[in-house]
């Protein structure tokens, strides 16, 4: 005979909070949460134990499902102590090291989302982002995605708060969203390049590949020169910071999403600059230097091939006696796996086509 | 009975205008010889083409367009600059009434602001025109500059290959076809 399940009772506010939490971790469709985000409801002084229990359960199950679906399920190899290890995410690393914690920042955000009229109020943040755990920052990332899906205006409003601007994962996944006349500093990726954040980056490689590929493909729809220029600059700044971080952490495998984006774009030999800038309308800025800069910045993702080439060159000169020999061997095998020689040649040819002084 | 009177305001400006446009890029130089030796070859080649050395860089100005090359790192800057001097004047007039409406001083102030705004607009148009001319000059020279710099790079590449070959052994035979851009060197090692 099975034990009777415990029935937990929550208030109306707590019920809405839990439904919003489920929506954010992609366990509830948007139409069931949309109305809740538009309502203003009075915030209680505290949450009940039942509510907290259910919230923990939601976060626990929701995050696991999200990371598995995003890419954790895929069998692939990633570096472990300088050596490649193959398998699904939970096969490559002991489960106990895949622990995420969620604290006050997650709770504060949920309380704000439930109580406030989300569309009309900019989220505040009481604690500094440095005190947020990886789990909290991942929750903010999912919240931003959810708000973008819910309403373009809500996403735009949230984007202007430090909650989003200082979240390196949001900036990596949605670099173009932060393109503006004022060049925003890129937050540090440190928290994502050590445990457990680094395993989230592994799981999100397929998601990041799809995001960046979509953005590159949609560049040909951009008609405004200034918009193209700013998007390219924002992308370049984020990628530079990210790749510098992965290089420093000896985790070049985490640049795989970029490698795959470039491989897919340069699958054929007929890619030319109009793939990116073909949609730009009009003569552009008055000065030639600004037009050239716009074209160069449109190719800020392609330009990363120079860094990958640098990794390749340094890996080739590595000797058996070097400490990072196995790391370099791993990178060389990645280079062959994705035929990066061919990809790099095609990419470099495209980069030359936007250089005014290079003879073709 | 109110009496109307005409108010005329004259404003003028005298302004120096300048506009520029530039392109920065870098030359692709193969390190056949050590970096310093390649830099020296490039500097000599460019001097032969009319460039003069200044603060470690080679520069040449022709018809308002300056090409500057840093032989150490191959950075190139092509800049077009234009200057002009404009003297503009304008006159605006308005009407005032001696018993109603704003006072003469405030009418004059308003007319002066209007005149200055008109001059500023005309000066901006002149600035835009000058900028367009500078950009057009730059665009007009790009093809020639590109060809010349690539010729220079090819020349130093050939020379570097010859010197490298001489270092490796005895040159038995050397055939050069400038039209086809080929160089064949047979070296006895």
Elements of chain B, N to C (H/E): EHEEEEHEE
DSSP strand count of chain A: 2
Largest sheet of chain B: 5 strands, antiparallel
Give the DSSP E fraction of chain A (strand runs of 2 or more residues).
under 5%
Query: What is the subunit organization of this protein?
Result: heterodimer
Based on DSSP secondary structure assignment, what is the total number of beta strands of chain B?
Answer: 7
Radius of gyration of chain B: 30 Å
Polypeptide structure, described:
The complex is a heterodimer of chains A (360) and B (189). Chain A is mainly alpha-helical and 360 residues long. Chain A has helices at 12-24, 30-38, 49-72, 89-92, 104-115, 134-150, 152-159, 162-165, 168-173, 197-203, 205-218, 225-248, 256-265, 274-277, 288-298, 305-316, 325-337, 340-353, and strands at 76-80, 83-87. In chain A, strands 1-2 form a two-stranded antiparallel ribbon. In chain A, helix 11 runs parallel beside helix 13. The longest helix of chain A has 24 residues, at 49-72. Chain A is globular, with a radius of gyration of 23 Å. The termini of chain A are far apart. The model of chain A has no long low-confidence stretch (mean pLDDT 91). The model of chain B has no long low-confidence stretch (mean pLDDT 89). Chain B starts with a strand and ends with a strand. Chain B is built from 2 helices and 7 strands. Chain B has helices spanning 35-48, 104-168, and strands at 4-26, 52-54, 57-62, 65-70, 75-97, 170-177, 182-188. In chain B, strand 6 (170-177) and strand 7 (182-188) form a beta hairpin. Chain B is rod-shaped. By secondary structure, chain B is α+β, with helices and mostly antiparallel strands. In chain B, the strands form 2 sheets. Chain B has a 5-stranded antiparallel beta sheet, with helices on one face. Helix content of chain B is 42%, strand content 40%. The interface between A and B is medium-sized, with 10 and 21 residues.
